[in-house]
Design a protein that fits this description.
The complex is a heterotetramer. By secondary structure, chain A is mainly α. Chain A has one domain: Cytochrome C Oxidase, Chain A. Chain A has 16 helices and no strands. The longest helix of chain A has about 35 residues. Chain B has one domain. Helix content of chain B is about 75%, strand content about 0%. Chain B has four helices and no strands. In chain B, helix 2 packs antiparallel against helix 3. The radius of gyration of chain B is 18 Å and the shape is flat. Chain C is an alpha+beta fold. In chain C, helix 1 runs antiparallel to helix 2, helix 4 crosses helix 7 and helix 6 packs across helix 7. The longest helix of chain C is centred in the N-terminal third of the chain and has 32 residues. The two termini of chain C are about 20 Å apart. The chains are: A mainly alpha, B mainly alpha, C alpha+beta, D mainly alpha. Chains in contact: A-B, A-C, A-D, B-C, B-D, C-D. At the A-B interface, helix 9 and helix 11 of A face helix 4 of B. The complex binds heme-A (2 copies), dinuclear copper ion (CUA) and copper (II) ion. One heme-A sits at the interface of chains A and C.
């Protein structure tokens, strides 16, 4: 492979400079993406460790492995780490950072230094979170509900709050950077209707980041202030309303679930088109449904509060509105499916993850409809049914999409191929392990097992054992890619510039790309997913295996 | 926005806007002392909004920008704020009823 | 209620399963049928407006059914039938304190007769809890500082789990108990012998009413400094500022704790605030007493008699 | 990576932009988006304010009337004045009047400091009267329009909690703004800004006007409730 050798020797963003300094002070979006990659993976391991401990504790009905307090801290920190330090940044800050400028033909994000600042804020927040965990932890649940968090918990609520607050600004700056970049930095000819769907998804995500995050930030400030100085904003003893906290919290945190899923949906659009070698079915519907989800996502937050004591009428309206978000999601699912029709489909690792995403997200989304249904939600809210729902969408959806994306762009990021066999095997193990872990929880929930329970009544044990067994399988499934991806960085087959023969500007530069992405600014005179005009490669050239 | 930089508002205009804002401030203080029933709040907020709009349009140059994006950003900012306020208040105003 | 919820749940499950089958089959069939073959190229298809419209509008229609059915159940869940027996619930870290209108007090256990509507009037002494009986498919958060209500009617004798479903601190998972549903006769026996009782809740409230000096102002004639409380519960009250509010449990509660929040028209705001001076249990007794001054037309919820509720009046709400 | 000499050379084009116009447009859009996040940031507090004002209207009125309307109005005028000087400073930058620019920026800082000074006087007054939420909080009074109806101290305290939270956050923004303008003044004095390049002044100006707008709402909401009674 003569070309590959040349690729490896060409100057690129990885070998341009060496040394810690060149990484820690970099303003190159691709390097920053890698900084994020390392740090979110670290936090995923921490969160996963907590998850394993949770599952181990729940192996038996009695609370025997850890203390009740410890368990409460475990799920709180599992939730906080996974949501704020892993899932919200994972796709935007890793894949988004790497790909947004590449995909639109820009040299970098609009504000490279702010991009670096985002990462530092994330790290400061993360270190604070770690410090908080090591010196006692928090036990409020990731939702910080008052008055427990303000007046009763005697753990490090304020410190965790500050960590989430700082992290919020990291996410705001990322979103701001993306919006400006997508508006202002597109290569000539890259019109809105030619943007890759991943970019549309990032755009929609950034809108939510900008509009939602400040609200949760100020809410957390109020909680901290109330806790420190006994101002009575939420405290019923002082005339406050604890539900106001929930309103403000979910005003962000419901849209936040779309911060998580939208980028992954964008990844899926890229994967499905590439591995069916087709233009996406209904481009504009898929693109606009991202915006639709982002906007409608702001109208439904009180569906987390159906039994919390909101007014009957508010509950009715929020339930009805919740169903509206289902429509753009349905549009996406159906369009992806239709894209497969008459395609030319290969089952490489990224595509297997995409299939996994389709299955698991559909189940997760449909069970979301159960929860939006008032009569049913009253029974299953705050049970394992909810836990199963959100793991299906967050882990089954977002994480599958992310893993698919990481495999897909790995050659571009590192210049090396990952081992295909191991990739497919891990995709399979993750899929099986995932269902084994979380499907039983739907049943548990309907049978009435409340969440955040450290001990439970014995009749729930069988399903819990299944779930714990599944979690270990799942853990193996996640560790595998970490091992072989690391391995491939050194020993993997060198990748060509466009190993998948894919459409998109990012494949038109070298692998790995040079510091300013393109030797000369590309001019775009083709539509997105222009697979029609991409010649087929010969079987053996397609990088599979 | 490219136009903001090119458009140069004259100091006279700025001073005129400033005067308008000062008059509005006087008005709002004055109106607060007149009993208008429930209208008091509306008048106070109406004047505040007028002032805000003037500041946005003239001091912040939104009037002169040909960039639709800036306008869209400003409008959507206020729109989502209103969503937050309106949908929350929907709960509070109907609590006693059900 | 449980039956309704289950029916809806099964309906949702069936529809969702169908959708899953549809999507999964299509994916699998397409993936197999159109897998990569030498020399066969993918066919580029731009999209199809009719299809897009179909798969936006049809789901929306299905969603509307979900919503309407769910809303209907929720509505009846939030509307206790008239004449339900009342049980006052106080949640605290980490136990449930329950008090029957008849005066029986229980902890973490609730005894009820089969077939009777039970309305729960709940509040919390500290943080938010949630009263959850999976078997009855009911759940309602219990908040500090106000009352929330829910209701159920058990149809089969037995012992059912009672859980706290809102995370409330260390022993959240220990805040569990049971609901014991008994045959009416058995229940009568339990009422007689069982739980410790010190008179009905309302009569306790009456004693408190005198003891706390309420009776000096609230007299049963029009001479008192405060309004006559007889027959006012469940009716609208005209306030000093012109608003009209319904006199429900939360209103009475607020009137005792923070009397100036809503002042009755024609009266001076002279009533002292009892915030911090009465416990949640005492408050419940006072509320029960004041309610007992306004016997509801249908049923006799606040008297000690155990009249079977007979026909289930799914009619208008109590408050 | 950051070895671009551009930074030292001032208004030079950063490497990843294709031209100065693109760079300026990006900066401006970025600033506006940032202001949107600020709207939502204050929005959370406005939401809390709205809820409790709806619940405790009378008590809020009573508490509001202890605020000094003259100081509030004076501060409003000061802030509007500072908005004027900021707007004028853009003009000075556009037309290359360096000394005028420095003067106007200094005037802005001065007015900002006056505002904070007045605020400090008001805060001090709250301390004197035990109107600061907390253990020593004390409030007595009647609800405006309802003679004899005593104010619920908890609800008055809620007003003051929101008062301090909102004006405190606003003051924090002022302090940041003053810091920003001090830096700009120094830079302007060195002649860094030219009619071709004055984006930082423009953006700092946008920020300052936004802070002004927040106050434009805070003033009636906090000071002018139920004054007519
Ligand atoms: C990535 C994250 C993510 C995503 C995408 C979603 C998506 C959805 N969620 Fe989920 N949700 C969470 C994460 C997420 N959720 C989390 C973390 C919680 C719990 C938080 C906590 O309490 O800790 C939660 C909780 C939660 C609740 C509150 C439960 C409770 O506490 O009582 C509700 C209630 O309405 C809900 C609803 C929905 C709905 C309607 C969607 C919709 O967007 C789903 C839309 C998708 C589909 C509908 C599937 C595809 C559609 C079709 C195939 C169409 C065909 C269908 C038919 C015709 C029927 N979610
Ligand atoms: C992105 C979000 C995310 C992700 C990825 C996960 C992943 C997992 N979660 Fe999590 N979960 C949440 C978000 C997430 N969760 C949230 C928000 C809550 C609610 C919290 C709350 O109530 O406040 C929750 C709650 C929650 C509960 C309920 C706890 C309770 O209510 O009592 C359970 C129980 O089974 C659970 C299990 C799991 C499991 C088994 C995984 C698995 O997928 C994890 C698999 C990963 C591994 C197994 C890691 C493998 C790695 C190692 C073993 C190496 C470790 C060692 C080193 C550090 C080097 N989660
Ligand atoms: Cu009480 Cu959980
Ligand atoms: Cu939600």
């Amino acid at each position: 492979m003569a070309t590959a050798v040349v690729t490896a020797e060409r100057e690129n963003y990885l070998n341009k400079e060496y040394g810690v300094r060149s990484w820690l002070l970099t303003v190159d979006h691709k390097r920053i993406a890698l900084l994020y990659l390392v740090s979110v993976t670290f936090f995923f391991l921490i969160g996963g460790l907590f998850a394993l401990l949770i599952r181990l504790e729940l192996l038996t009905p009695a609370g025997d492995l850890v203390q009740a307090d410890t368990y409460n801290k475990l799920f709180t920190m599992h939730g906080m780490v996974m949501v704020f330090f892993f899932l919200i940044p994972v796709v935007p800050a890793v894949l988004g950072n790497f790909l947004v400028p590449l995909m639109i033909g820009a040299k970098d994000l609009a504000f490279p230094r702010i991009n670096l600042l985002s990462w530092y804020l994330y790290i400061i927040a993360g270190v604070l979170m770690l410090h908080c965990m090591l010196t006692g932890g928090v036990d409020t649940g990731w939702t910080f509900y008052t008055p427990f968090s303000t007046a009763f918990s005697n753990t490090k609520v304020v410190e965790a709050g500050i960590a989430v607050f700082i992290n919020g600004f990291s996410s705001i700056f990322t979103g701001l950077n993306f919006i400006v970049t997508i508006h202002r930095m597109r290569a000539p000819g890259m019109t809105w209707s030619r943007l890759p769907l991943f970019i549309w998804a990032q755009y929609a995500t950034s809108v939510i980041m900008i509009l939602g995050t400040p609200v949760v930030a100020v809410t957390i400030v109020l909680v901290a202030v109330e806790r420190l100085f006994h101002l009575g904003i939420f405290d019923p003893k002082l005339g406050g309303d604890p539900l106001l906290f929930q309103h403000l919290f979910w005003f962000y945190s419901h849209p936040a679930v779309y911060i998580m899923i939208l980028p992954s949906m964008g990844v899926i659009s890229e994967l499905i088109t590439c591995f069916s070698r087709k233009r996406i079915f209904g481009y504009s519907f898929v693109a606009l449904s991202s915006i639709g989800i982002a906007v409608l996502g702001f109208l439904v937050w009180a569906h987390h509060m159906f039994v919390a004591g909101i007014s009957l009428y508010a509950a009715l309206i929020f339930s009805a509105l919740s169903y509206l978000v289902g429509v753009p999601s349905a549009i996406k699912v159906f369009n992806w499916t239709a894209t497969l029709y008459r395609g030319s489909i290969t089952y490489s690792t990224p595509m297997l993850y995409a299939f996994g995403f389709l299955g698991l997200f559909t189940i997760g989304g449909l069970t979301g409809l159960f929860l939006a249904c008032l009569g049913v939600d009253v029974h299953v809210t705050d049970t394992y049914f909810v836990v199963a729902h959100f793991h299906y969408v967050m882990v089954g959806g977002v994480l599958m999409g992310y893993l698919g994306g990481i495999h897909f762009w790995w050659p571009k990021i590192t210049g090396r191929m990952y081992p295909e066999f191991w990739g497919r095997l891990s995709a399979l193990i993750v899929f099986v392990g995932f269902n084994l872990t979380f499907f039983p929880q739907f049943i548990l929930g309907y049978l009435g097992m409340p969440r955040r329970y450290y001990q439970y009544v014995p009749e729930y044990q069988v399903l819990n054992v299944l779930s714990t067994a599944g979690a270990t399988v799942l853990g193996v499934g996640y560790l595998m890619p970490m091992v072989y991806l690391l391995w491939s960085m050194r020993y993997g087959k060198p990748a060509s510039d466009n190993p998948w023969n894919a459409a998109g500007l990012e494949w038109m530069t070298s692998s790995p790309p040079p510091t300013f992405n393109f030797d000369e600014t590309p001019v775009v005179d083709f539509e997105a997913y222009d697979y029609e005009h991409i010649p087929e490669k010969h079987e053996e050239e397609v990088a599979v295996g | 926005m490219s136009d903001t930089s090119e458009h140069i508002s004259s100091p006279k205009l700025y001073v005129a806007i400033w005067l308008l804002l000062m008059v509005c401030t006087a008005l709002t203080v004055g109106a607060a002392f007149i009993d208008l029933g429930p209208l008091n709040t509306i008048v106070a907020l109406g004047i505040a909004t007028l002032k805000a709009v003037v500041v946005v349009l003239y001091f912040m140059h939104v009037k002169y920008t040909h960039e639709r994006m800036t306008k869209a950003v400003v409008v959507s900012g206020f729109f989502f704020l209103l969503l937050l306020l309106a949908l929350s208040m929907m709960d509070y105003t109907t609590r006693g009823l059900g | 209620m449980a039956g309704n919820v289950d029916a809806l749940y099964i309906f949702l499950t069936v529809v969702s399963a169908l959708m899953c089958v549809l999507v999964f089959t299509l994916v699998v069939v397409f993936a197999a049928r159109f897998r990569r073959r030498k020399g066969v190229r993918a066919e580029q298809i731009e999209g199809s407006l009719p299809l897009e419209i179909t798969w936006s509008v049809l789901p929306l229609g299905v969603f509307f059914v979900f919503f309407a059915w769910g809303a209907w159940i929720y509505f009846s869940e939030r509307t206790p039938p008239q004449g339900a027996s009342e049980v006052y619930v106080v949640g605290k870290q980490w136990m449930w304190k329950l008090e029957h209108a008849e005066g029986q007090r229980e902890i973490n256990q609730l005894h009820v007769p089969v077939g009777r509507d039970i309305k729960l009037i709940m509040t919390s002494q500290d943080v938010i809890h949630s009263f959850y009986v999976p078997a009855f498919r009911i759940k309602q958060d219990v908040l500090p500082g106000r009352y929330t209500t829910t209701w159920f009617r058990a149809t089969k004798p037995g012992t059912y789990h009672l859980f706290c479903a809102e995370y409330c601190g260390t022993q959240h998972s220990g805040m569990i108990g049971s609901v014991v549903v008994m045959e009416p006769a058995e229940y009568q026996a339990w009422l007689g012998g069982g739980g410790a009782t010190t008179g009905s809740l309302a009569s306790n409230g009456q004693a408190l009413f005198t003891q706390l000096g309420c009776a000096t102002c609230h007299r049963t004639d029009t001479q008192g400094r405060g309004p006559n409380l007889v027959g006012t519960f469940g009716k609208p009250v005209l306030l000093e500022d012109g608003r009209t509010v319904m006199e429900d449990e939360n209103y009475v509660r607020e009137s005792i704790l923070v009397p100036t929040a809503k002042v009755v028209s024609g009266f001076k705001p002279v009533m002292p605030a009892f915030q911090g001076m009465v416990s949640e249990e005492q408050l419940n007794a006072l509320v029960a007493y004041i309610k007992s001054l306004s016997p509801p037309s249908a049923g006799a919820a606040n008297t000690a008699s155990v009249a079977p509720s007979g026909e289930k009046p799914h009619g208008p709400e109590v408050h | 990576m950051d070895s671009h000499a551009a930074v030292e050379h001032g208004p030079e084009l950063l490497h990843h932009f294709s031209d100065a116009e693109q760079q300026r447009n990006a900066a401006s859009l970025g600033m506006w988006l940032f202001l949107v996040t600020e709207i939502m940031f204050f929005g959370g507090m406005f939401c809390a304010y709205l809820v409790y004002r709806y619940w405790y209207f009378g008590d809020f009125g009573a508490a509001s009337q202890t605020l000094d309307i003259r100081l509030g109005a004076f501060n409003t005028a000061v802030l509007i004045g500072s908005s004027l000087t900021v707007a004028m400073s853009i003009w000075a930058a556009q037309t290359g009047r360096r000394k005028v620019l420095v003067g106007l920026l200094l005037a802005t800082i001065l007015l900002g400091l006056v505002f904070l000074g007045v605020k400090a006087v008001e805060y001090h007054d709250k301390f004197e009267h035990h109107h600061v939420p907390g253990a020593s909080f004390h409030f007595e009074g009647e609800v405006p329009g309802h003679p004899g109806l005593p104010v619920n101290p908890y609800h008055a305290q809620m007003f003051f909690s929101l008062y301090f939270a909102m004006t405190g956050l606003h003051a924090l923004h002022m302090i940041i703004g003053i810091g920003l303008f001090s830096y700009l003044t120094y830079k302007a004095w060195t002649g860094y800004y030219t009619p071709k390049y004055y984006t930082p002044i423009e953006n700092a100006g946008l920020y300052w006007h936004f802070v002004d707008i927040v106050w434009i709402y805070l003033f009636p909401l906090l000071y002018l409730i139920d004054r007519h009674r």
